[in-house]
Design a protein that fits this description.
Layout (H helix, E strand, L loop, with lengths): L13 E3 L2 E4 L1 H13 L2 H8 L3 H15 L4 E4 L7 E4 L1 H26 L4 H12 L6 E12 L3 E9 L2 E8 H7 L6 E6 L5 E3 L11 E12 L3 E9 L2 E8 H7 L6 E6 L5 E3 L3
Antiparallel strand pairs: 1-2, 3-4, 5-6, 5-8, 6-7, 8-14, 9-13, 10-11, 10-13, 11-12
Length: about 270
Amino acid sequence: MKPQDITLQGALWLSMAGEKFGSPQQLALLAQIDGSGSITQAARTTGISYKAAWDAIDHMNNLAGEPLVERLSGGKGGGGTRLTARGRQLVANYQIIAQEHQQFLRNLQRQAGSMADDLLLLKGMSMKTSARNQFLGKVAAIRTGAVNDEVELEVADGLRLVAVVTHDSTESLGLAPGVTAFALIKASSVIVGCGQDGMRLSARNQLPGTVSRLQPGAVNTEVVIELAPGSSIAAIITNTSASELGLQLGSPACAIFKASSVILGVPG
């Protein structure tokens, strides 16, 4: 499956004594004051109100323990505001840190080739559901009907599952070729077959594989069939059925289930 593009983003905050000291917007306010000499102009450029600007300055002054901004009185322009030496030093240091932060994000971005698929995989791993079998893949094809649609989901190279869902579900889930989706199949919905000798079945999904694990219980046996490297499916059958089928580790078997037994979903 083709990796998806992902863009890394990050926000930089300063803190002092466990308290957030300056956000990018607050430091931008200080930089604007340094450039314009007017808190009114700086607040307008930064996109905050005059009161919010002074509230932010008071907050930073209190945490710094010394003024970062000072008022100027008198003069031809009737006064104004300017940064103190400490304020200018803070802005300069923050800009250096911000540049390093952006370089850090760019370096991570270069390593993010297949990170989107990894995030989808982690999301699927954290999803809680009663269905024993969970597959993540991409929609390979959709055949539209009057009421129901048949959806093919490619979950591994050469391995496809077929599901039947209502046309409304196809639209509400946004299913289309290339869209990432997951399939849920209850183990109790999977029939295990072996040595069909050309028997023809109506079940849309008939996936051949090899028995990789047998877990007998008091009444039932869990049968795990390896379908492809890294892909397997579990079925629950009675102990009597497991015995009559002569299932053993490494023996060929086929996982059979109806397309209507497949539940489709998309990552949120």
